[in-house]
Amino acid sequence: MITRGKQCLYTGVVGLVMTAMFLALSMRSGSNVPVPETYSNADSTSSVALPATQREEIDLPSHPSPAKPVANPKTKQNIQPVRVINEKPAVEASKYPEWWLRAWPRSAVASLLGVFVGDQPLFPPCQDGNQGQKGYTFVEPRNYLARSKSPCWYEDPKGGKGLRCAPYFYLAGVAKGGTTDLYRRIRLHPDVMFGTEKEYHWWDRDRYGSSSKDLGSGIVNLQGGMSLRDYLSRITGRDIREVAAELRDGGSSVKVFSDGSPSYLWDSFYWVALDGNQGCMEPRVITGHHIRHFYPAAKIILTFRHPTPRLYSRFLSRIPRTPEFRKATSLDFHKFVVNGVRMYRECFEKWSIRHCTYNHTLYQDAKVRLVEGMYPVFMADWLRIWPKEQMLILRYEDYSQNMESVLRRVFDFLGLAPLNRTQWDVVLAQEKYNTGEMYEKVGKMLPETKLILDQFYQPFIYQFAEIMNDSRFLWAETSH
Ligand SMILES: *[C@@H]1O[C@H](CO)[C@@H](O)[C@H](O)[C@H]1NC(C)=O
Ligand SMILES: *[C@@H]1O[C@H](CO)[C@@H](O)[C@H](O)[C@H]1NC(C)=O
Ligand SMILES: *[C@@H]1O[C@H](CO)[C@@H](O)[C@H](O)[C@H]1NC(C)=O
Q1: Does ligand 2 come within 6 angstroms of the Cβ of 272?
Q2: Sorting pLDDT into bands at 50, 70 and 90, what band is 87?
């Protein structure tokens, strides 16, 4: 076990300010919304108060010891640690609650943060012996044509026939982070091909034969899912002909294909059955590994949003297709949140944050998608798999405020030809993708719910800002 002092990365100033804010807020809320016992406090007259641990003084931090090189299991060569975590934290000072300080270091990756692995597993094997016995491995990369910007190849290279292309970029997260609106605009660029839809969910779900119901019962059938070929034909749609024609004439193609499934970042729920994860309590190999192995040069775009409003927005968007949520009110949401938070907090008492985050049973039982906002767990993993230069990390809040400047960064990152003013006008004139209809029906999130969620997510936000080395991910300016 690693001691608390070693793990605590920050000092207490920000934490104290936040605590004061929470307390001030909780004083004002006095309605009759049920509040779980863990959130009420005998010392307090308000209905929602911080747990006692939140107010405790926490030891002054020392920085974690530098990561040691780990042996790459395939090449047996040492992978040199590349520190992602800054020696001088992005967050000047802060304070984690006790439960976080106990649960975060229990993870097998806690001491390996910042150690780059590429498509190799995130930590050493969990059991001796043959790690490949389940027989499900990566989708192997192809001989990608140098003349095409997207990863393309011929099934019949001699005859120059059977062109296949895979995504050049992934808009891989997060749900309710503005990805639909962003994706619609990106695809108005003449070199971005449309494909057949936005979200394919192949890497995380459709390639496996199991349904998520099976996962719940512990049965995972990896065979019998959608083939790579079928996935790619959906990715390219009819636009493959345009690229094929460009290449057939001996020219090159700058057209790009893409996949905009925002679940790739967080959905590795089949991890229990994936090769390399045998005997583990948390995954060594996740969805991101598989994407990276197949096309190591892929570009990844991720948009993050403050996790509290994100969760509510996600809940609202799921109402029409979730029978259990029919006629749901903001009070129902509150009850789901109270229950979900309790379940995760119980898990965190016994297990690591990362173990609970990747646990599918908990994900399903919690009803509301709390997991999707546990950004530092996923980003710590993805930053070890993907080089930082291949990732563009955006904030929903910036996109909402200045769409054009964010889009410029996106087009630039993807290396797409600059648009002229007329083309920009078309991209910007596209009607905003609007999901506000449910807000009108259900109303705003209750302040009590917001308080519970802000408090629950607070250490995740701190850790996220630390992992990103960027204080904008504290969302300090956001009043949601
Ligand atoms: C973290 O950010 C600071 C300031 O933005 C920068 O100087 C430093 O190099 C960054 N550290 C890492 C490890 O990227
Ligand atoms: C996930 O959590 C549930 C409930 O806490 C537990 O019973 C189960 O063993 C966990 N699953 C895994 C794979 O750790
Ligand atoms: C902008 O580019 C498009 C596509 O290349 C072209 O048809 C159009 O004439 C250009 N408009 C201006 C104002 O340059």
Answers
A1: yes
A2: low
333-367: pLDDT as tens digits: 999 999 999 999 999 999 999 999 999 899 989 99
Length of the chain measured in residues: 480
φ, ψ (nearest 5 deg) of residue 238: -75, -15
Atom of ligand 3 nearest to the CA of 423: 1
d(Cα 369, Cα 308) in Å, to the nearest integer? 11
Tell me the β-bridge partners of 391. 300
Q: Which ligand has the shortest distance to the CA of 273?
A: 2
215 lines ligand 2 (CB under 6 A): no
What residue spans of 133-270 are helical by DSSP H?
179-186, 212-216, 228-236, 240-248
pLDDT at 234 over 50: yes
**Average pLDDT, integer, range 82-97:** 57
Helix, strand or coil for residue 358? Answer: coil
Three-class secondary structure assignment of 15-81: HHHHHHHHHHHHHHCCCCCCCCHHHCCCCCCCCCCCCHHHHCCCCCCCCCCCCCCEECCCCCCEECC
Flag the least confident range among 73-77, 391-395, 433-437, 461-465: 73-77
